[in-house]
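Structure (tokenized):
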């Protein structure tokens, strides 16, 4: 029940801060449009592999900007109030769930924009949809924990950028490999093994966040 109310609170706060979602949407659209001006206008010279690299770089930085505000954007002293009314695990799960839905929504929007402006080289769309979902979950679970750690320091934004790179790079590499298989339309069994690896990474990161966050929250 507490998890439901905390999740409802996250959505209510986001509806009040419409400028945040509008800023992320503008960032996403601007990145895709600049890529279109740089590549597609020159007789459509963009290759499928370049498309994949541009897509995941865009989604990565959009996700970081989305999830970084989870705890860093909270007012000082608010965590004391949360600590008195809810369990740390419920707070973490509500943040991860909300960030996952927001990352997934922005990832789908990015895919639509890339398809409109820079064509769509993806052949296995079902596998790519599963990859997009698991990658969004991985970004949300790992970056939410890092946002909680960074919020306890003075230079939280700098620490968030430093800590996020080694954590998300493994998720990003697996996602890029699966995307290449989706573009080349290779045997699904190879892609599914990478998909299972991505699922295992997500389970490991989520379990680590579940175990570590109560200790971070107490400090």
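Design, position by position:
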């Amino acid at each position: 029940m507490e998890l439901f109310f905390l999740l409802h609170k996250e959505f209510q706060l986001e509806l009040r801060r419409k400028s945040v979602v509008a800023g992320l949407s503008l960032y996403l659209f601007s990145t895709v449009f600049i890529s279109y001006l740089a590549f597609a206008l020159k007789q459509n010279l963009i290759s499928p592999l370049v498309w994949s690299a541009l897509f995941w770089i865009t989604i990565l930085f959009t996700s970081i900007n989305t999830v970084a505000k989870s705890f860093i954007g909270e007012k000082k002293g608010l965590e004391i109030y949360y600590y008195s009314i809810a369990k740390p695990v419920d707070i973490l799960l509500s943040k991860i769930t909300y960030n996952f839905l927001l990352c997934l929504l922005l990832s789908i929007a990015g895919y639509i924009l890339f398809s409109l402006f820079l064509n769509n080289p993806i052949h296995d769309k079902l596998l790519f949809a599963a990859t997009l979902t698991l990658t969004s979950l991985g970004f949300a679970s790992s970056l939410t924990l890092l946002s909680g750690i960074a919020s306890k320091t003075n230079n939280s934004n700098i620490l968030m950028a430093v800590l996020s790179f080694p954590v998300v790079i493994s998720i990003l590499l697996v996602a890029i490999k699966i995307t290449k298989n989706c573009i080349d339309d290779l045997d699904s069994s190879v892609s599914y093994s990478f998909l299972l690896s991505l699922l295992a990474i997500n389970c490991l990161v989520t379990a680590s966040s579940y175990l570590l966050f109560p200790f971070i929250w107490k400090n």
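Reviewer-requested clarification: The radius of gyration is 18 Å. The chain has a mean pLDDT of 80.
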